[in-house]
Write a structure and sequence with these properties.
- The structure is a single chain.
- The protein is α/β, with parallel strands linked by helices.
- It folds into two domains: about 5-80, EutN/Ccml (OB fold (Dihydrolipoamide Acetyltransferase, E2P)), CATH 2.40.50; about 115-375, Rossmann fold (3-Layer(aba) Sandwich).
- Helix content is about 25%, strand content about 25%.
- The protein contains twelve helices and 17 strands.
- The strands form five sheets. Strands 11-10-9-12-8-13 form a six-stranded parallel beta sheet, with helices on both faces.
- Helix 5 links the parallel strand 9 (about 155-160) and strand 10.
- Helix 4 packs across helix 12 (about 360-375).
- The termini are far apart.
- About 45% of the residues are buried.
């Protein structure tokens, strides 16, 4: 299941909180290759330490061996000759990535040893807080752009669930959004780890967002690297329905961020993706709000700047919307949203496509953010 390589670090490629990327030359070529070209490898510094040029590292190269785009890095599993020192004793007994070789112990926000334990033990709901749930991690900066287009003072939390990447520090977007002040605290949920707070469940993450972080709005999505099989229910974003249900159960406003595209060549993702039609239309209990971009309000100059034109999805929408009929569908005007997206402090990209290449993808997410901000304003 795992392809292993021993390698030697050539150089440090980049650093960000919790992550060091290095170039490392393996002792043996990858399967099916003859040369030992340097590999780009990710080291989670809190787990394995900080590899330096000249260090020997043990790498998991499975994704590279299979030529995958998702997870297309080597992963540093250990620095056998430079193990990090033991941490001093401290609180926390939540084990994440349980029984994997890289299981790690953290202090949970809802842990008995946490200063927030009493708060969360007493909390019963989230007081009508809007909870935006997205299928793709790439929706996060666009949702925030929509929120900020209405009210940049709103405090927004991000909860990363464990359907895709487990280490939250892997996300460059989260790092950039926090550095820019667009995003308050982060919460890593379930087996995911590395947020400002660690939560056991989606429910405790919601309570923590409201009562510990003091969030006005919370955004949920899986991390980078979602998984799909091309089958109706075989995709990691299917949990969107469960997360919307959790928000409703705790007295929040469940808001589905519609995954849309005007450029995806795969028919099942053109217009409104089958991921949204299935996870929200069939997986979530009736009564969620589904904001949708009102393409009739898209300025002509914006449409002209995009290729393809975002409005080409119009002929397929009516039939697709029937699958969401159990929910409240709300058209949202697009005035100023494209400019708000252009101001994103991090790169907008979905499936390798940028803002002008797949504008509907980002406008849909921004429309959901705008609706949530307006819901707070009343």
């Amino acid at each position: 299941m795992i392809h292993w390589r021993r390698a030697h670090v050539v150089s440090v490629h980049s650093d960000r909180p919790g992550v060091r990327e290095v170039l490392a030359t393996p002792d043996a070529p990858l399967p099916g290759r003859t040369e030992r070209a340097p590999l780009r490898a990710v080291a989670y510094t809190e787990l394995v330490g900080s590899p330096e040029p000249g260090d020997t590292v043990l790498l998991n190269v499975s994704a590279l061996a299979r030529g995958l785009g998702t997870g297309g890095f080597a992963l540093v599993v250990a620095l056998p000759d430079a193990l990090p020192a033991d941490l001093p004793p401290g609180p926390g007994h939540l084990v994440k990535e349980r029984y994997s070789p890289t299981q790690t112990m953290v202090l949970g926000v809802d842990d008995q040893e946490s200063e927030h334990h009493a708060t969360l033990a007493a909390a019963t709901g989230i007081d009508g807080m809007p909870v935006l749930v997205a299928d793709l991690h790439s929706a996060l900066p666009a949702v925030l752009a929509g929120i900020r287009a209405e009210d940049p003072t709103l405090r927004v939390a991000y909860a990363m669930t464990d359907g895709a990447a487990l280490p939250l520090p892997f996300s460059r977007a989260v790092t950039g959004l926090q550095e820019a002040g667009w995003l308050a605290d982060t919460i890593s949920v379930g087996q995911a780890w590395g947020g400002d707070h660690e939560a056991v469940t989606v429910h405790s993450a919601l309570l923590a967002a409201r009562h510990v972080v003091g969030a006005d709005i919370t955004i949920f999505s899986q991390g980078p690297g979602n998984l799909g099989t091309g089958t109706p229910f075989g995709f990691s974003g299917m949990v969107v329905g469960d997360h919307l249900d959790a928000a409703a159960l705790l007295g929040g406003i469940p808001v589905a961020v519609a995954r849309m595209s005007n450029a995806d060549a795969r028919g099942r993702h053109f217009g409104i993706s089958h991921h949204t039609l299935t996870a929200v239309g069939r997986g979530a209990r009736p009564g969620c709000t589904v904001p949708l971009p009102d393409l009739a309000t898209l300025p002509e100059e914006t449409a002209a700047a995009c290729d393809p034109d975002p409005r080409i999805i119009a002929p397929v929408l009516d039939a697709q919307l029937e699958a969401l009929a159990a929910h409240t569908l709300v058209p949202v005007d697009l005035d100023g949203l494209f400019a708000a997206l252009e101001d994103s402090p991090v790169r907008l990209s979905t499936m390798g496509r940028g803002l002008t290449e797949d504008a509907v993808s980002f406008l849909s997410a921004a429309a959901a953010g705008r609706w949530a901000a307006r819901a707070i304003a009343g």
